[in-house]
Amino acid sequence: MTKDNFITIMFMNFSRFLLKFCKAKKMAAASLFFLTIFVITALFAPLIAPYDYDEQDLEGRLKPPDEDHFFGRDQFGRDIFSRVIYGTRISLEVGLLVVLISSAIGVAIGSIAGYFSGFLDDFLMRIIDILLAFPGILLAIAIMAILGPSLNNVILALCLIGWVSYARLARGEVLSVKEMDYIEAARSIGCSNTRIIIFHVLPNILAPVIVQSTLGIAGVIIGEAGLSFLGLGVQPPTPSWGSMLSDGKNYIFEAPHLTLFPGFAIMIVVMSFNFLGDGLRDILNPRMRGD
Q1: Domain count along the chain
Q2: Helices and strands in the chain, H and E counts
Q3: Does residue 243 lie in a domain region?
């Protein structure tokens, strides 16, 4: 099979899956549509935003929405619509990076623990149990208090608390998969443990990991917004939906649009990832499919 033929077959299979997914899960398909809009907005924020996110006009502070400023202006006269657009970059960047790093670390540790079992499994699981004994957001706040507020530290803090759920999930799946006949067949022909894990175990546990990752992005976005709301996340003047909510809480009765629009953006993105994750779970899990 040539490279072009392989790419064509993969594209056709993906297109067929996407069409089936959209027909079977209309709510998830609508969520995918909204998320696509947010991703495009984040990628082309400088072209879409009508104003610079830090451009101030003190004479127009706290002005409500009008034809020039669709979402109104904040306490410094900055355009809220532009700041929400640039805030999309922060939320999606943190969400995607944290989930990619956390899932990679968690799946690697969970796969090793589940495959080899014994003392190594017990040792790694006890570490995970200790981390799970503390509320994740409190650990993140403690880490941020030590490291200091910044975007990179937010990503690091959320990764340090995020990998444990993927490790537990991967371990449980590996414990089931490693007893399958094809794993025994791979051992019988002399395949190394590394090869078995990479080429035979991991491909068969990806479906639940993908679902967990999709749902996890929503949790990470809320976590980043919470840290920024407390002043421990992205620092001014860089716009973050959480910090915009924090700034607007002091004017919630005088100018409710300061909190309404960033809060609405968080709600739409989080709901979209949750609905998309639910749809992927139903499609990728054979026991939950009707066909």
Answers
A1: 1
A2: 12, 0
A3: yes
